[in-house]
Amino acid sequence: MIPLPDILIFALAAFVLVISPGPNMIYLISRSITQGRKAGLISLAGVIVGFFFHIIMVSFGLTAVLFAVPFAYTLLKSLGVIYLLYLAYEAVKPNSKNIFEAKNDLPEDKPGKLFSIGFLTNVLNPKVAIFYLSFFPQFIKPEYGSIMLQSLELGFVQILVSLMVSTTIVLTASRVSVFFAKKPSWVKVQKWFMASVLTGLALKMAFSKAK
User: Fold this and answer.
1) Alpha-carbon distance values, 55 to 49, 68, 126, 187, 193 (Å)
2) How far apart are CA 32 and CA 100, in angstroms?
3) Given a cut of 60, is residue 64 above it in pLDDT?
4) What is the domain partition of the chain in residue ranges?
5) Where do the H-state alpha helices sit in 36-125?
6) Residue 200: exposure state from Cβ atoms within 10 A (0-12, 13-18, ≥19)
7) Mind listing the pLDDT tens digit for each residue in 140-169?
């Protein structure tokens, strides 16, 4: 089992992943605003199932790679640091979009299509794959037990965080969108907060010790 302090840090990273701009969140917010909460929740169900696909793939992959190629940890850590700093820059760069600046002209789709689009949006989302591949090795240690089980543990934590945050956002998308439209100064606060957390996580990852 992974220690609770490490789990909490990982949960914070998962939280930042959820609230940062990306295909999953933009689609969920857009669908919730244009077609209502029910459509947003159905789309979210597809996204969550997509997470399971990533978890299974990454869990098997990390089990093989980290045992076969020890220096792979350093490589994945470096990629993770670069990726976090890139996200931090994307959050505050000039003309960067807020996650609630969503498309409002989507056509209405039936439940089956909503679910499938949510699923495919997540499965084909490189942001999720990069997060798993670069973050999981930072929290997995042989002395904690099976690498496979640790990967699954982190995956379920990430899914739980994503489910709670995304459900809240789907249910409040319209109101939050109006709030940010009326008070644009809060958009800057949200962006800089996100960038600060991402940079902090990047520094922690950069100075973490190899397994």
Assistant:
1) 10, 20, 13, 32, 28
2) 11
3) no
4) 21-91+108-206
5) 37-68, 72-92, 111-123
6) middle
7) 887 888 888 888 899 999 999 999 999 998
* 177: Cα within 13 Å, side-chain hemisphere: 20
CA-closest candidate to residue 59, choices 117, 146, 119 = 146
Tokens 């807020």 correspond to 98
Q: How far apart are the first and last CA of the chain?
A: 16
Contact 97, 177 (CB under 8 A): no
Separation between Cα atoms, residue 26 and residue 7, nearest integer Å:
27
Tokens 């010790």 -> residue: 209
Place of tokens 């939280």: 15
Residue 63 CA to residue 154 CA, distance in Å, equals 14
Torsion sign (Cα): 210, 59, 130, 154: negative
Specify the residue for token string 């997470």: 51
